Amino acid sequence: MMFGERIKELRLNLGLNQVEFSKLLNVTKQSVSNWENNNILPSIDMLINISKKFSVSADYLLGLSEIPTLNVQDLTTEQITHLQLLINDLKNTNNH
Is 16 part of any domain? Predict the structure, then answer.
């Protein structure tokens, strides 16, 4: 999956239109549109910003990984444990 597809997928999963997504990133709607259509790529700084803001890895955004990892750096161990329990519950729900 290419960068444009990943950005669009991320945006749609968050229930955002291009204007709302662009405001969160402090860029123009045209920038988001160009990314999604694979006309241009964001700067490295913007790639890092997108990665941090939406808690996915740059590798995932660039299509180098199929796993959209979560950044849990600022969470406590207890919060991470809660997330892991939630993830396990979701996986169990999908398997039934």
Answer: yes
**Radius of gyration (C-alpha) of the chain in whole angstroms:** 15
- Residue 79, pLDDT > 90, answer no
- For 5, residues 6+ apart whose C-beta sits below 8 A from its C-beta are 36
- What is residue 96's predicted lDDT score, i.e. its pLDDT? 62
- Triad 46, 48, 49: Cα angle to 5°: 60
Query: Can you give the CATH number for the domain in which 14 is found?
Result: 1.10.260.40
Number of domains in the chain: 1
Judged against a pLDDT cut of 80, whether residue 68 lies above it is answered with no
Is 31 inside any structural domain? yes
Displacement of CA 22 from its chain's centroid (Å): 13
Q: What pLDDT is attached to residue 86?
A: 86
Alpha-carbon distance 62 to 85, whole Å?
Answer: 28
